[in-house]
Amino acid sequence: MDLHQISLKLQAGKAKDVKALVQQAIDEGVPAHEILEKGLVAGMNVIGEKFKNNEVFVPEVLVAARAMNMGASLLKPLLAAEGVKATGKVCIGTVKGDLHDIGKNLVKMMLEGKGLEVIDLGTDVAPETFINTARDEHCQLICCSALLTTTMGAMADVVEAAKDAGIRDQVKIMVGGAPVTEAFCKQIGADAYTPDAATAAEVAVQLCSK
Ligand code: B1M
C-alpha cells in the first residue's frame, strides 16, 4: 500500500481514516516501523514544517497529533513484537515547563519495542520527579525530552539533581528533542544525545546493559 496516503490523512487530521489505513497496511504485511516512519512520522514532519511557516495553526496541529496517536496505538504491540528482547528499566518524560509529548511518546514506543520497561512520567516533569522515580524504581536510564529552547535548560537541572541525590553514578541520562544537540549534551554532562526515536532505543539498550 502507498504509505503516503497515511501521511496525507494525518496532515488532514482524519484520525479514523488514519487508523483504518494503518490497519490496512498491517493487514497487508507492511512492517510496523515502516508504517510509523513513512506514514505517521512523515505526515507529522510536514505539519511541523507548516506550523513553523505559519501555514497551519495550533488546532490543526492538535488534530494531526490525535490522528498520529490513534495510528500509533495500533502499531505499539507490533513494534514491541518486532523488537529484540532486552532487559532494562527506563523512566521518560518531557522536562519541566514543556508540554510537547509526540516525540517523547515515539521514543517511549521504540524503547518498549526493544523490550525495555518504560515508566512514562508525562510532560512538565520536575527534576526531582525524574530522580525520585529513577531511585525508587531502580531505573538504569532517565530519558529527557525537550522541544523548546526555553526548556532545554531543565535538562541540566536533572543532571544536577541526580548529583545532589547521590545517584549520578547509578543512572545514565539521555537527552533529545528538536533543539537539543550533542554539544549541549556534553555541556550539561548528560551521558547521551540521540536525534531520533529509533537511535534513542538502540542507545538506550546499550546504556542499560552497561
Ligand atoms: Co509547539 N513549538 N509550542 N506545540 N510545536 C515547536 C517545538 C516550535 C519549533 C514551532 C515553531 O514555532 N517553529 C516552537 C519552539 C521554538 C523554540 O523553542 N525554538 C514551538 C512553540 C514556540 C510552542 C509554544 C510556545 C507556542 C505558543 O503557545 N506560543 C507552545 C509551548 C507549550 C509548552 O510546551 N509549554 C507550543 C505548543 C504546541 C502544541 C500544544 C500546539 C503542540 C504539542 C502537542 C503535543 O505534543 N501533544 C505543538 C507542536 C505539535 C509543535 C510542532 C509543530 C511539532 C512537534 C512535534 O511533535 N514534532 C513543533 C514544530 C516542529 O517541530 N517543526 C513545535 C514531531 C515529533 C515526532 O518530533 O518532538 O522533535 P520531535 O521528536 C523527535 C526527535 O526530536 C526525537 O525523536 C522524535 C522522533 O524521532 N526526540 C528524542 C524527541 N525527544 C527525544 C528524547 C530522546 C531522544 C530523541 O532521548 C531522551
Topology record:
Blueprint: H1 4-11, H2 15-27, H3 32-52, H4 58-82, E1 89-94, H5 102-113, E2 117-120, H6 127-136, E3 141-145, H7 153-164, E4 172-176, H8 182-188, E5 192-193, H9 197-209
Parallel strand pairs: 1-2, 1-3, 3-4, 4-5
This protein binds CO-5-methoxybenzimidazolylcobamide.
Give your account of this protein's structure:
With 210 residues, the protein is an alpha/beta fold. Helices cover 58% and strands 10% of the residues. The chain has nine helices and five strands; from the N terminus they run H-H-H-H-E-H-E-H-E-H-E-H-E-H. It has helices at residues 4-11, 15-27, 32-52, 58-82, 102-113, 127-136, 153-164, 182-188, 197-209; strands at 89-94, 117-120, 141-145, 172-176, 192-193. The protein has a five-stranded parallel β-sheet with strand order 2-1-3-4-5, sandwiched between helices. Helix 1 packs antiparallel against helix 2 (15-27) and helix 6 (127-136) packs across helix 7. Bound molecules: CO-5-methoxybenzimidazolylcobamide (B1M). CO-5-methoxybenzimidazolylcobamide binds next to helix 3, helix 4, helix 5, strand 3 and strand 4.
Summarize it.
It contains nine helices and five strands. With 210 residues, the protein is of the alpha/beta class. The longest helix has 25 residues, at 58-82.
List keywords for this structure.
Rossmann fold; 2 domains; five-stranded parallel β-sheet; Methyltransferase, Methionine Synthase (B12-binding Domains), Chain A, domain 1; alpha/beta; globular; 210 residues; binds CO-5-methoxybenzimidazolylcobamide
